[in-house]
Write a structure and sequence with these properties.
The chain has 235 residues and is mainly β. It contains 4 helices and 18 strands. The chain starts with a strand and ends with a strand.
Length: 235
């Protein structure tokens, strides 16, 4: 199974079982949550052009936030592009009236399970378990607060960045290095790939009250650069 990092944040191409999946594409210069005065984030590096991307079979969206489900990026793809996500995310995408092929994860042409966070009002800390013929992958771009963890995971993709906000702005968004290593230990991950770690330029209320801690390297984590791939080969 091959994992290719498409930007410094959380956009990927995963290739497995003769299938290719584009994950959380956000390639516009910035993204806004609610309104620019509330939260705006800007990439610090040049983003890939849609026309330069490798071919793929479908797009998977993991979260409804605009740095995962980025409307301006997604509308650059053909309307016939297959979009795979949870039902709640698909409702948002369907409201645009553009894509004709939207599929809930339960009907995806591969096995993928969602690990919901334990808190009812937690819309951030869920993870996805992808099972392929060549690898079992846990994707947790913000970390996960689900008390039940899968075991015997081949590749864990998560963030070492700690991103904290006051409780009235949502609390801790990215759970950070300590949580990532604990998750890797509990699910017996063979490899850890870092994601969602770009030091973006932010403005607005959220940025003013945020506290961020970035990790540039760690012996247990593989940090891929933009355009770099990691091949997992099951022994």
């Amino acid at each position: 199974m091959r994992f290719t990092k498409l930007n410094d944040d959380n956009s990927w191409l995963w290739e497995f079982d003769s299938y290719s999946l584009l994950v959380d594409p956000w390639f516009t210069p910035q993204q806004v949550d609610i309104a620019p005065w509330f939260s705006t984030q800007r990439h610090v590096t040049t983003q890939p052009a849609i026309s330069d991307l490798p071919s793929f079979d479908a797009i998977f969206i993991s979260h409804s936030f605009s740095d995962h489900c980025n409307k301006k990026t997604l509308l650059q793809f053909p309307a016939t592009t297959t979009i795979i996500a949870t039902s709640s995310i698909l409702r948002k995408i369907k409201s645009w009236g553009y894509f004709s092929h939207v599929i809930p994860i339960e009907q995806a042409p591969f096995e993928i399970l969602r690990y919901k966070p334990s808190g009812l009002l937690d819309f951030v800390h869920h993870a996805y378990l992808l099972k392929t013929k060549s690898a079992t992958v846990l994707f947790a771009p913000h970390g996960t607060k689900n008390k039940k963890k899968p075991v015997d995971v081949d590749v864990l993709i998560g963030t070492s960045t700690l991103y904290q906000l006051p409780f009235w702005l949502g609390g801790t968004v990215n759970l950070g290095l300590k949580s990532l290593l604990a998750l890797a230990q509990s699910c017996q991950a063979k490899w850890i790939l870092n994601t969602h770690d770009e030091a973006k330029l932010g403005t607005g209320v959220v940025e003013r009250f945020s506290n961020k801690e970035y990790v540039e390297n760690h012996p247990q984590i593989k940090f891929l650069k933009t355009g770099e791939s990691f091949d997992y080969i099951q022994l």
